[in-house]
Amino acid sequence: MSKTFTLETLKIRMGDADLAPLDLHQRIQRALRGLVLDGDLDPGVKLPATRALAQSLGVARDTVENAYVQLQRDGFIARRKGSGSYVSETIGTELRGSARRRALSRERRPALAQSIAPAAGLSRRGRAIFDSGGVADQQSVQAFATGLPETRSFPLAVWERLQRQVLRDHRDHVLLHGDPQGAEPLRRAIATYLNLERGAKVRAEQIVVLSSTRQALFLCAQLLVDAGKPILLENPGYFGARKAFEFAEARVVPVDVDAQGIRTDLLRADRSGAACVYVTPSHQYPTGATLSLERRLELTRWAAEGGRWIIEDDYDSEFHYDGLPTACVQGLDKHGRTIYLGTFSKTLYPGLRMGYMALPEELVSAFTRARSIVDGHTPQILQLTLAR
């Protein structure tokens, strides 16, 4: 039976406890998005006009308009001038069902590496790492430099106050070794943030707190790709990811991107046998393209069908000109094949050296153990301060 829009169904979905912390237009947008993904609204169904829906819900018309704009931006609805708003026809039938969804900058070599010859006796891998030039950070603010937030207005007084609270409440315990997976209060805070703001489906138990996205990429390269085996990367793509996989002696296979992000037709055509793909869906690096909803869904299907992993680097999704950021691939992946990477270097300050991964449950133990070998843990004082 065809499923059409009903006001009562929308109100029930808007009443979900998970949506309560959101602004009203976000609740409307997230509720409609959920109805589409759960199959409660069929592709092609016409939605009420913004004025009519606003009157029915007792809200301002702009509130509904903002929700519709974000749904259109994410690819869930199509708006036709003079006709109305409709559920997108491109959403696959496999997403429609009666069951509720599960509750849950620039590259340059360091001057030092160019001027000093490597020590004699380096291994083959060591020599290759030296020859790669490493990855250089911008050490000072320059016009158009990538990856540098504006730090002069950082609320240092607030940060210092929260850090004093941590020291007062935890005393010398924060001076000891911490959990390699990350401090539990911070993992809870990250999971809550991802679920509310990024449309993810993750629990605190799936979060691993790291020193950076680069460490996350290093762990992915070591644990998911054997030496000599292929890894698919966007072309053009993030040089830090390429170097991380080259460091692990993986064979990098480029996959072209266009105005809609990575070309999923080329993924389908790939015969390299790769078990992983690295993507930047929200803001492709360096082109800035956003992966379309249709391709996001195709990407998750491709991964599920071949038992492959998607490494989703969401490095700067918090920054956007208007509306809300596009929802992450992890939240659309009902097969649990997505490894989500995030960082605080862009939103807070790069010297913090704090990033995280949201992992499928079966990978958490392996990545936590590997992390314990690499550097043990992230400083507890910083983690607990950031949690607050």
Notes on the structure:
It is built from 15 helices and 11 strands. It is α/β, with parallel strands linked by helices and 388 residues long. The strands form 2 sheets. The protein has an 8-stranded mixed beta sheet with strand order 4-11-10-9-8-5-6-7, sandwiched between helices. Helix 3 packs across helix 4 (61-74), helix 7 packs across helix 15 (380-387) and helix 8 (184-197) packs across helix 15 (380-387). The protein is globular and about 75 Å long. The model is unreliable at 97-114 (pLDDT under 50).
Give the helices and strands, then pairings.
Blueprint: H1 7-14, H2 24-37, E1 46-47, H3 50-57, H4 61-74, E2 77-80, E3 84-87, H5 111-115, H6 124-132, H7 156-170, H8 184-197, E4 207-210, H9 213-224, E5 230-235, H10 239-247, E6 251-258, E7 261-262, H11 264-269, E8 276-279, H12 293-306, E9 309-313, H13 329-332, E10 338-343, E11 355-358, H14 364-374, H15 380-387
Parallel strand pairs: 5-6, 5-8, 8-9, 9-10
Antiparallel strand pairs: 1-3, 2-3, 4-11, 6-7, 10-11
List low-confidence stretches.
97-114
Biggest β-sheet description? 8 strands, mixed
Beta strand count: 11
In angstroms, what is the radius of gyration?
Answer: 22 Å
Cα-to-Cα separation, first versus last residue: 49 Å
Strands ordered across the widest β-sheet: 4-11-10-9-8-5-6-7
**SSE order:** HHEHHEEHHHHEHEHEEHEHEHEEHH
Helix count?
15
